[in-house]
Amino acid sequence: MTISVCVGSSCHLKGAYKVIKEFQRLIAEKNLSDKVELKASFCLGNCTNGVSIVIDGGPVLSVAPENASEFFKEHVSGRI
């Protein structure tokens, strides 16, 4: 599974690096490093709704740092 997190200007200001750090923590905690690739990317085209994320080339989803853990459980852990 590949997770791309936008770190462009808008997403950076909305906490993209906090989301990345939380995802890194959860990937390590759940021993998923061999199953999940986490990448930083630039504009994914959903700038107004929070930090933009694409999972395995799917539709652009949005997440806030405050709910990154819940988002990960729902959209990542639930698919592995």
Please characterize this protein's 3D structure.
By secondary structure, this protein is of the alpha+beta class. The protein has a single domain, classed as 3-Layer(aba) Sandwich (Glutaredoxin), CATH 3.40.30. It is built from three helices and four strands. Strands 2-1-3-4 form a four-stranded mixed beta sheet. The termini are close together. The mean pLDDT is 90.
Topology (SSEs and partners):
Blueprint lengths: L1 E5 L2 H5 L2 H14 L7 E5 L9 E5 L5 E3 L4 H8 L5
Parallel strand pairs: 1-2
Antiparallel strand pairs: 1-3, 3-4
> For this structure, what is the CATH homologous superfamily?
Glutaredoxin
| Helix percent band | 25-40%
> How is the main sheet built?
4 strands, mixed
Instruction: Label the structural class.
Output: alpha+beta
So, CATH architecture? 3-Layer(aba) Sandwich
* % residues in beta strands: 15-25%
Total strands? 4
In a few lines, what is going on in this structure?
With 80 residues, the chain is an alpha+beta fold.
List keywords for this structure.
alpha+beta; Glutaredoxin; 4-stranded mixed sheet; 22% strand; globular
